[in-house]
Amino acid sequence: MPNLLVKPKAESGLVQEITPESAGWTYVGFALHKLKPGETVSGDTADREVCLVLVAGKAEVSVEHQGKTEAFGEIGERMTPFEGAPFAVYAPKVSHWTVTATTDLELAVCSAPGGEGFAPRLIAPGQHPQMTRGKATNTRYVTNIMPENDGAAQSLLVVEVITPGGHTSSYPPHKHDADNLPKESFLEETYYHRLNPAQGFAMQRVYTDDRSLDETMAVEDGDVTLVPKGYHPVAAIHGYDLYYLNVMAGPSRIWKFNNAKEHAWLFTGV
User: Fold this and answer.
1) How many Cα atoms occupy the beta-carbon half-sphere of 191 within 13 Å?
2) Of 71, 143, 188, 232, which one's alpha carbon is 20 to 30 angstroms from that of 160?
3) Which fold, 5-266?
C-alpha cells in the first residue's frame, strides 16, 4: 500500500498530485496548484469530472464543454482558507477547464469518474452555508462544496472543514469502506491539510478494526493524507487551527458511514 502521508513536492506550480494510480485505488484524484498573478493552468477532464476549489485567492475561470465556453469571470474572495467561504467550479467529463490567477492563488483540482448529463456550473459561497458540528472540544465548522444531495455530479463529494486548535475532527471515529448500502457506502478519501499559523501540525490516524492498517501521522501545512479504508480521526494541536479539504468518491455518490463500536458511548450530542 502506498504511503498514506504525501508531502508537497514543490513550493509553487504543481505542489501536490494524487492519481488513482499513485494512490493504488480506483476513484479519487487530487492536485494542488500554487500560482502567481497572471499564471494559468488548464486541463482536459477526459472521462472524469472535476471540482476546481479556490482554496485561497482569486482567478478567472472558464470551462469549455460540448462546443460552448462557460466563462465565470473573476471569482474568489478569501486570501486564506481560514477566512470566508469557498468559490468552486464544476467541470463535467469531456470538458476543458482554464484557470488564470488574478492574485496569488491556491487551486485544488478534485476529480473522480464522470457521467453523462452534467453541465459546468459555479458553486458560490452561501450555496451550502457553513454548519457547526459537534460540541465542546469536538466542535468543528463544515462547509459542503459538493454534497450528495445536490444531484449535480456522477461521483464527486467535496467538503471543507475548519477544526479549532485543541479540537478533534472526523471524530468519534467513522469509516466508509464497505459497499453495503443502505448500511454503508464505499468511498476513497483524501485530506488536504492547512495549518494556521503555518508552522503548526496536527495528528491523523487511519486504522481498521483488525489493525491490518494502523498508521498515525503528524500532518503539516500542505500535506495530503490518503484514506483507502478504515477509521480516520484528526486532532488539531493547541494553538494551531486546522483546515482540511476532503475529496471522496466511490461506486455510489452516497456518504453513508459506520462508527467505531467501542466509541459509541461518545455519541451523546457530539
Assistant:
1) 29
2) 71
3) Jelly Rolls (2.60.120)
